[in-house]
Specification:
Elements: H1 7-43, H2 50-53, E1 56-57, E2 72-73, H3 77-90, H4 95-104, H5 109-132, H6 139-152, H7 156-159, H8 163-187, H9 201-213, H10 217-236, H11 243-260, H12 263-271, H13 279-293, H14 295-309, H15 318-335, H16 349-365
Helix pairs in contact: 1-5, 1-6, 3-4, 3-12, 4-8, 5-6, 5-8, 5-16, 6-16, 8-9, 8-10, 9-11, 10-11, 10-15, 13-14, 14-16, 15-16
């Protein structure tokens, strides 16, 4: 016969299990909607702009000088490697992402659309994990992040569905968030001690950091800065900075140097004209771009940060620190574009990811 004193605990356990089941069911529905929407829109999106250039092997000339009648269609992975090497020398330092995009374009586009939809689901889930930290990801948070992801993303037609751009920005963001996840967890006050001491993470984060920072000059620089500041924050918590945190930072630095000092980057700087005459004009241009491209997100982060600053110091915990760090990385990634000769809207995708993490944490803590 069951002890009467055990009945409340059994009831609570059943209630918790039911909540967990409903939470997973709600998450499955949200993920299915994201996957289906990305896949169906992707299927209706043709190859455009740079996608056509990526179908052909670069013979060793600047990107826009390629003549289709003289170009050789890519037919094997060796063609991809040769083309990416030539692009690295004559147009851009994004070697890994050039290889990825041209490899995907060898297959039927339906395969890219399937994988792209999976990447979009992974990005939304990783955003929620960064926002929740070691806490529970509730369905309302998934819905909120999904809505902001769709409504606030800069140049979504390009960054979500154009093969050569989506791989550089959407897919890069997936790897960036995955790379940063252990950094986010180790700063959480509730994290167990074991997370800080995993030596096998060192090599993985070194490679991931190098690939991520090889994708975008402004986002790569901001990520390197964020990793350094997170290491300092870890030290100020009175804890030892583990080897994998240092290895990840070194990987970021290597990837960023390979991008910035690539021969193709120098060629591109010489060809593309500046859209502003001075750094101050560049700052004004970036500010205008921020409030034109992602106005709701920038305003929300500013308002929530102001409200968070008015809280009692005892309420400012590790999660609030992470929110400030993500916001700082987003602003740094955005204003790094003041030094760029060309400022397209898609370049704000990295700042958008950082600011979305910051806004989500601040909303969850408010």
């Amino acid at each position: 016969m069951q002890n009467l004193s055990d009945i409340p605990s059994v009831a609570c356990s059943d209630k918790s299990a039911n909540r967990s089941r409903w939470r997973w069911l709600g998450a499955a529905v949200v993920f299915a909607v994201i996957w289906a929407s990305f896949f169906l829109i992707g299927q209706r999106t043709p190859l455009v702009l740079d996608d056509y250039y990526a179908l052909y092997r670069n013979p060793g000339i600047p990107f826009f000088e390629l003549r289709f009648e003289d170009a050789q269609r890519i037919e094997s992975f060796s063609d991809v490697v040769v083309s990416a090497r030539n692009v690295y020398r004559h147009w851009t330092g994004r070697f890994f992402w050039t290889v990825l995009a041209q490899s995907l374009l060898m297959a039927d586009k339906i395969w890219f659309d399937c994988m792209n939809a999976c990447v979009a689901v992974a990005v939304v889930w990783l955003l929620c994990r960064h926002i929740a930290g070691t806490g529970v990801v509730h369905v309302w948070l998934l819905v909120l992040v999904t809505g902001l992801f769709w409504l606030c993303a800069p140049a979504p037609g390009l960054t979500f569905f154009m093969v050569t751009v989506a791989t550089t920005y959407l897919w890069m963001s997936c790897l960036l968030l995955l790379f940063l996840l252990p950094y986010r967890q180790v700063l959480d006050a509730a994290v167990c001690d074991g997370v800080a001491h995993r030596p096998f993470l060192g090599l993985a984060l070194f490679l991931a950091g190098g690939v991520v920072c090889n994708s975008s000059e402004n986002t790569g620089g901001a990520l390197l800065l964020l990793v350094i500041v997170m290491g300092i924050a870890r030290r100020r918590q009175g804890a030892r900075v583990p080897f994998w945190m240092i290895a990840g930072g070194v990987g970021c630095a290597v990837g960023l140097v390979l991008l910035l000092l690539a021969p193709g980057t120098m060629v591109r700087l010489a060809i593309e004209s500046r859209t502003h005459a001075s750094v101050m004009q560049g700052i004004a241009l970036v500010t205008g771009h921020l409030f034109h491209t992602i106005p709701a997100l920038v305003s929300a982060v500013g308002a929530l940060a102001y409200l968070g600053a008015r809280q009692e110091p005892t309420r400012r915990d590790a999660e609030t620190l992470c929110a400030w760090l993500y916001a700082g990385a987003g602003i740094a990634a955005a204003y790094a574009l003041a030094f760029s000769p060309y400022v397209p809207a898609r370049a704000f995708f990295g700042p958008f990811i950082f600011l979305l993490c910051s806004a989500g944490i601040l909303v969850r803590r408010s």
